[in-house]
Amino acid sequence: MSLNLSVFRVRAISAIVFVVIMLAGLIWNSWSFFILFTLIQLGCLLEFQKLVALIEPGYKKISFIHHWGLLLLGILLMMTLGPVDLGLHGVSIKYIGSRALLAVVGIMLISDIVSKKMSIQNWAISFAGLVYIPMSLSLFFQLKSFMANTYFGNWSFSIPLLLILSIWVNDTMAYLVGALIGKTPLSPISPNKTWEGTIAGVILSVLIVTKLAGIYIPIQEKYIFLISLIASIAGGFGDLLESKLKRMAGVKDSGTLMPGHGGFLDRFDSILFATPFVWLILQFLF
């Protein structure tokens, strides 16, 4: 694989715009943080439905209410698992989400039964989508709490930022190194990825993130190292999983969100897979 400068330029420009939007959502306030990840999961879940419908023709037959109800469930799940300090007119979004969640599930079930489109397989697929996307991204709300109100002040955005930064650096370094010196294909699932790029991406991501973040974020370098290492390795598996889904669906990209990068799932596939692993290791550490 050789480095295409025109493609790299498009990727770089769209990535810069993307980074600005992400940083604003991460750092601005609790509402921007919640809205950011809720919109991300909505885009990912919509693309997941499209991919699955191409892979499993039976999923195309889900009812109108099942289709849009699943997207609504994604939003309500984020609300149910969201921050306790966010509310609407004095009512916690967790309370609203948990109550509405059951109602929407009931409406979807009744709709499928009445329309005679009830399918255990389709419901299993929809449930898998909820676990894979909104339940994974909802863990960011807990990651945000690890560094809230510390001795050094409120650094609640630091762990989410470290995770996302590790994925970004890993993806960028893997792409550059793979394009320049990559010779050995990583997997038939994703033929453009190489072992050289993958290994270099993990190593460079861990080194760059640990050293740079260690200067500005009040977390011991050994913890930053561990977070970056887990995020980079797990993120690679997440990328392969989404590549497998696209290969089964017969498409190159999951969507057209970012020029040169693809859709929501193309951009967040690594994060979806890495987040639970980073969350899990932090449970043991703290």
Question: What tags apply to this protein structure?
Answer:
two-stranded antiparallel ribbon; 4% strand; 10 helices; 286 residues; mainly alpha
Give the gist of this structure:
Helix content is 73%, strand content 4%. With 286 residues, it is mostly helical.
The number of helical elements comes to 10
Q: How can the largest sheet be summarized?
A: 2 strands, antiparallel
| Structural class by sheet pairing and helices | mainly alpha
Q: Give the strand tally.
A: 4
Instruction: Note poorly predicted spans.
Output: none
Walk across the major sheet and give the strand order.
Answer: 1-2
Layout: helices, strands, pairs:
Elements: H1 5-27, H2 30-55, H3 64-80, E1 87-88, E2 91-92, H4 93-114, H5 120-137, H6 139-145, H7 158-181, E3 185-187, E4 190-194, H8 195-216, H9 221-249, H10 264-285
Antiparallel strand pairs: 1-2, 3-4
Helix pairs in contact: 1-2, 2-3, 2-5, 2-9, 3-4, 3-5, 5-10, 6-10, 7-8, 7-9, 8-9, 9-10
Can you give a write-up of this model?
The protein has one domain. It is 73% helix and 4% strand. The chain has helices spanning 5-27, 30-55, 64-80, 93-114, 120-137, 139-145, 158-181, 195-216, 221-249, 264-285, and strands at residues 87-88, 91-92, 185-187, 190-194. It has a two-stranded antiparallel sheet.
